Each structure stands twice: as C-alpha cells, then as structure tokens.
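Support case: user asked for a sample of complex input and structure output to validate their parser. Sending the pair below.
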Amino acid sequence: MSTLSDQSVPVLQARNVTKEFATSGSALRRGHIAAVDQVSLSLYDRPPQIVSLVGESGSGKTTLSRMLLGLTPPTSGEVLYHGKNIFELNREEFRNYRINVQPVFQDPYGIYNPFYRIERVLQLVIDNFKLAKSRSQAHDMIEEALRAVDLRPNDVIGRYPHQLSGGERQRVMLARLYLLKPKIIIADEPVSMIDVAVRTLFLNILLDFRDKYNISTLFITHNLSTAHYLGGQIMVLCFGRVVESGDIDQVIQRPSHPYTQQLLAAVPSIDPDNRWTTKANLESIERPLTHEAGKCVFVSRCPYAMPICSQQRPPDFTIRENQHSACFFSEKIAVEAAAASEVR
Amino acid sequence: MNSTKANTPARPQQKVAPDSERRLLQIKDTRVWYTTVAGEAKVVDGVNVTINRNEVFGLAGESGCGKSTLVEGVLRLIKSPGYIKSGQALFTYPKDGNAGETTVNLFELGLGEIRPLRWQHIAYVPQGAMNSLNPVMRISDQITDAILEHGNSTKADATKNMLHRLEMVGLPPSVARMYPHELSGGMKQRVTIAAAVTLRPELLIADEPTTALDVNVQRVILQELLDIRKELNLTIVYVSHDMAVHAELADRLGIMYAGAMMEVGTTSQIFKDPLHPYTQGLIRSIPDISKERVRVEGIPGLAPSPLAWPTGCRFHPRCQFAKDVCRRVEPLLTETKPGRQVACHIYTDAWNEKSPGGTVQ
C-alpha cells in the first residue's frame, strides 16, 4: 500500500497505451487497426484537475476510457494506478482502485434498472462499501448526496428511473460519486444527452467536486465549447493519437495542430453577427484518414502537408510551456493561426 | 434585422412584400395531444407562428418541448394515440404549376389529399433520417423511386434530376451507385437532404439533421443547406435544440417551451436581446468558446410534464421573476413590435399595475 499514498506519482496514468482491433475481411487481408495509438496521460489528485479529452466519433475516446477503467486490456503499454499496473494489483489495491476511479457513462437512460427505485443505486454503494453503520445513517447520507448535486431528496427518493429526466439521472450518478468521493472521475460524454439549460448544472457540479472535494475528472467529449467551459487541460485526439495537448485556453486561442484548427473552425459561433464567411473545404474533410505507423495521422486532410509528414510519425513538439503538438510545422502554423484568428 | 443582413453578405436580400404575400405557412393555435393511460398528454398546446417565404426559421427548445411533434403535426404524420386536437396550418403553394396560388389548411386535408403535397411542396428530413435509407437499395434507386412516385417525370429525367441534386449537396455522381453502408454518416445525411429537395419543394422541414454528426461534418451540411436554399428559393424550418447552430443558420427563431411558443424574433434579437426569462436563461447557459470563462447557473428546476402543464405561465415554477399573475393567467404570445413576439406578463401593461414595486431587469 505504500505506493498508494505517494503524491508525486499520478493517481492514474496511461503509459503508451495502444489498443488494436482486428479488422474484418478475409483471413489474408485481415489486419489490425489501432483505435488508440500510443497515448500517454497522467491524472493527479493533488492538486485536483480537470482534463478534457476531445475528439470526433471514431477517435478512440471511449476505448481509452475503457482501458483506464480496466474494462479493456491494452494491446501494449500499461495503465498504472499509483504507479502499479492495474492488472497486477492485489485484492486490496484493486478494491481501492475500483473505489477511487469511477465512471460516468454517456447514456443516462441505459444504466438504471427500470424495476428498481432510483435510490437503490445509492443504497448499493453504501452497502457494498459499508459506508453507513445504520439504516438511518444511510438514509441521511443519501439525502446529503442528493442535495450536493442540486436535487431535492423529496423529488427523487421513491421514484423510478422513467420518472426522472436525463439530466436528473446523470446528477444521481454524481450523487453516487459524492458518496464514494473517488479521486478520479472518468466521464465519457456525460452531457451529450442532456439539455443545454441543465447541462451547466452538471458541469458546475464537476467543478465543485474539484474545488470542494479534490476530485479530478477526465472529461471525454466531442464538444469543444463544453471542454472550454470546464477549463483546465485539454488533449485533442485524432484517429487514436493525441495530436495536441496543453492548457485549454492556450490551445483554443492559439491552436498549433492543423486538426485542432479545423475542429475549432467548425464550432458554430453563438454570435449571429459572427457567422461563417468562408467555406469549409469539403473535400479535405471527407478524405479518409489512413492509419499507418510511419506517418502523421492527419496527413491526408492536412492543408500544410509536406513530404516529411508521410515519411515519419511526428513526435510531440513543445510549442510553449504547457502546450504540445504532434506536427512538424506547428510553430509556423500557430503563428499563422494567431494572425488568421482576427479574420475568422 | 438590418444589422444581421449587413454582416451576412451571403444571404439573399429579401424583397419587402406585404405580410400576406410573404406568408408561406401560418400555424394557428395548434394543439397536438396524445391519449395516454394517465390522461391527455398536451405535447403541443396552443402554438401560433408564421413562417415567411425564403427564410430559415429556427425552431428551438429543450427536449420534450414539442418542437418535433409540432412539425410532425404540420406534416400530418401524427399517428394514434396522438391526434391533432385543434388549430390550423395554412399553407400557401402554387397548385398546378404557376396558375396562381392556393392556401389550404393542412389539418383539414384527407390523407389522400396531403400525400401529393409531400415531396412536391413540403419536404421533410426527419430526425435520424440518414438511418432510414434502405440498406439493400442503391442510392440512385432510392431517390429516383421517390421522384417517380411523387412527381410526374420519366425515368431518364428522374435520373438526371437525381444526379443534379447529389451534386448540389457536394456528392460525386459515383455515390449514386453506392449502397448506404458505403457512405459515412455525413454523406448519408446529405443524400437524404438531396432526396428531399429533388422535386423543388417550397418548404423544407429539417428536424435535427446534424445532431449525431461531428462538428466538421455538421459545418459542411449547414453550408449545403444554405446553398440549396439559395439555389431553389427554399424556405427552411430548422428544428434543433442547439442554439449555436441556430445562430449560424437561422434568420428568425421561435423558442418553444412546454408545448407553447414563448418568443419569436430575428436571430439577432433573440441572441442579443432575449425578452422571455426562459430565453434569457437558455442564451445564458450556452458556453461561448470565444469569450472568457464565466460560471453560469443554467435554469434550475425541472421541465414540466405534458400531462399537467403548470397553471398560468408554464414557465413560472422555474422563473425568478414569477409573481401571482403568472401563476393564475396564461400569457398570450403578443407582439411587442413588428415581427417580435413574446408570451410573458412582464411585457404587458398589467405587470407593474398589479403589484407596484415589482421591477424587472
């Protein structure tokens, strides 16, 4: 257990994890495709942080989160909990990992058993981890947890899942986490199915969890605006690889990878006076990305592509403090982006 | 309104015509209810709105506010246990070519009478339309089938027409010979849009056409929609919960809440000067990537159930300004200035008289 209390080691770390899936086809043509390709990330709890993992569908976001949660073993590389491979933890350590690394999934409709009342998910946590000494204490804990996520206990206790909205159900999941007070939350697209007006309630709770209870969150999303709202760190995932990472404000203001730029340009502006004036390059967006080991993953769509991009995989370049980009020309691109951002 | 146009040079200038000539679809006091074991679910309950020619009208609101049900009602696609309780949907279209225009109440037409209107005059891209393509038919056959079924053209014309429409949404002719599984989600969605406009309808109703798509692809589709609209002189009703998409696309916006229209105005008015407290909360809760990070509180409380809308104003349980009159009297959608409507007591003379000292904003 000694390693579990060392603060300089990340609570949860992915070290060069790769996950390959076999592609379909005849036995001769069958190959492998890397859904996640040598991704490394570290999540600390002191100080608590929010890391947003942004990517389009098919970029490997969910596969990565499943590996971090120990639901899928990586093909190569390892996931470390307090510096120890999660598949080599002893019984006690594994239990500790299961308590402290908690998921919130995308679909608030699919995770509840419709036959049981809502509070059962909270009761189960209390029972499984023996959090309460008596029934009345358990009841008080459930009420407190619901209040912590801005729900009125009377509105929720005794109800069935179908009687609550998606936003409320997602917040009950957070109430569950409130009871456990994990060190890390892995939230995979938790707000994509809830309405804007209640979305911020959910996001604010994540911010409160960070500020009040030192809970870190890995927030997985396709929505850059939501990631920006949470702040902290960002990692941009493109076709299984991290193409840009760093402080979210820096990345959004001065994106240095062409993929990040393309993604940012496609975020609709909420100012009707600031509509798109230029056209997106349709052909480049639709060109399929090819995943080859010795190439940049974005080369087929990249407007800046040079021969070197097809000859070797770009390493991580440090653009400035706390901003990294896997692009040979990132510095040049960042300068151009800064100039172009005035025009949009 | 003028400021919007000045900043969006790509938009065609609308000719100023008398109101009656600009009207394409007028929805009056429309109610679409569902019979359930627990009583009548008043999903759409008294909507008034007018869609003008050549505009992109954005229909916005949270899930469950009735925006999809409203357009399904207009298209007469409501199936039992749902029914159109009351109301009118007056649609003006050129019957038999250019020999003048006819106005019909879509709610009074028999199903046999409304069928010829679909595709020819009113096209519809439903939610998740891209998943409704037939997986065992080539794209070309699916589109030409529809053309032959609803229009009166020859097979050769239909094929030519189909290829032209595919080109319009930026798809190469080779797509015509493909099957749906060979296309990406965005391409499939563009196929459905191309199919919807093959017969040059006057009105295109698109329900969340980009919701399941990535931002890059979404951007492309929105652009295609604007291009098509320009080329075909189309009117688009764009249904979406995503306010940012409306900000990019819509000329005017209607904000729905709890089965009713809360506010109507130009996109610029709605975003810059929202009147209804619900709209204000909605606009506030959209994170803006281009601005400093500020914590916003959203709209607390629950969306009400269509089985029992709150009395008086349907938003009053969640409204920070609510007072007695809001609990008792339902505010009507009233015009505050031409083209700008809001259903809120705050903007009526009665507001300050009934309880002195009550101030807003």
